[in-house]
Fold this protein.
Amino acid sequence: MSNEGATLYLSAFVDELVRSGLKHIVISPGSRSTPIAVLAAEHAELKVWLHIDERSAAFFALGLAKRSGQPVALLCTSGTAAANYYPAIAEANLSRVPLVVLTADRPHELRDVGAPQTIDQLGMYGSHVKWFVEMPLPEANVSMIRHARMVAARAVMTAGAAPTGVVHLNFPLREPLLPELGHPQLFSAERRADNVAYTADIHAPVGIAKDQLLDLSTELLQAGRGLIVVGPCDDKDLANRIAALAELLNYPILADPLSQLRSGVHPKAHIIDSYDSFLRIEGIVKELQPKLFLRFGAMPVSKPLLLYMNKYIEAKHIVVDEGGWRDPTLLMATRITANAAVLSQQLVEVLREQEARKLISNLDQAEAAHSEQRAWLSRWQQIQHTSAGVLEEVAAHHHDGELFEGTVVKHLQQLMDNGSALFIGNSMPIRDVDSFWRNDEKEIALLANRGANGIDGLVSTAMGVSALQRGTVLLLGDLSFYHDLNGLLAAKLHGLDITIVVVNNDGGGIFSFLPQSTLPNHFEALFGTPIGLDYEHAAHLYGGQFQRISSWEQFQEAFRQAQASGGLNIIEIPTKRELNVTLHRSIWPKLTKALVSQ
């Protein structure tokens, strides 16, 4: 039986994905998705990544898209295969990662009649996608082929448009499922004559009008005690522009570790990297009473910062975000829908113009505020310097030979190469990075899944990052590692180089910091959840190297060996949960004493 309709329609669709800028597709094997999978593999300009487990495949695609900043396609067969994409889709939606999800489906006559491998896939990801389309059954006529190209172009555009996110296209397909690879119009049907995209996308970054900029710059100059807060961000243009803006305003910058502001060659005199520690001290919080917050993007990970912002509800909250609504403080007074880097540059240009200062309605008030702001900045910098010193001392201490989990962050920052990437697990690792990762000249990208903040899919996401980024390191806990052991297969299948550092405290370490830890009869069974696994066997199963260390000297040597040898390397750091809590909590009295004595 001829399959010309599916061949021309689907090959046009795949070709248009590529012409619209899509370079990667992650495929899990299955029967119903056969024609799209075969055509994707046949297309010379599309890189196919095979991943057998759909849940891991989706997080792998998430990692590819997160690192490249470009839409990545996902393809699976019908039924529960598509349901396994759900956790990664939720994460991609909340963290604004562009994915084009392609799910194969049974044709309409086989739905809701008890046919095998059939579930309701229509709109199955709900509000976690920006756009859902139920594709028509493939046909070979001209209008349908044009439809395939238009939808492909629109899918890539929609996924990549601010705020970036997920689109879902569901393909009902009838047998026969094998495409005609020898068809003379394979990939070329209804292609534009000049071989460009069927629909071109011209992106115009959004700023704000000059009069609005003048009003905003006046407000920022007159605030007196203003702060810039920068959440997770992957925009490489932002760091220098934010640094320049802070210098003109004399604002401290509270930079989340995922903001990409703590690493790189941009100026860092205004960047505060230890606020998560000193904002736990009541006296310091009382002293540092702000008048204005200028926040860019999502909220940082730090809970003390969130509590600090919620404490001073009279301070004005201005949030700059390209789209969506991200304000867990519930205090946003002004929302500016604009690209953060573009708006920062606009503000810098206005503030540098002498005429802009002359247009300020009350110049004396602005000068007084400017003087107050300089003193405010100086105090933040003083507290930052003292706090960073205390944290460095704690991380460098030997603690009677016991391994402190915060110290691994210090060693990774020293050992990792310029131009590498650290993917950070949730729960304790991201919080330790927030506390112990200092401002540094190295260009090290800090990445994490901070949309849904889950522990699932971390190995697979980091594998996706490593496919595009040399020197990728994954730092995570033992439960997170166990949760996504399937993700290790990607290293074996695709020859990836990655070093995985597993902090093994035999359970859920973060719960030891929560009120549940006071329930001795139930804590271990319900929250501590020790599993007692030997991960050396997992390393060998997937063809990797494994080292369990007992000292930081051993860790340094193991890390250097891992980076030199390439491939899959797993380094385990055994720690004790109870001791880790004690050592973390010992920081605050030391910090309080150092700051009070100033």
Residues 399-588 form a domain with the Rossmann fold fold (CATH 3.40.50.970). The chain has a mean pLDDT of 91. The chain is about 40% helix and 15% strand.
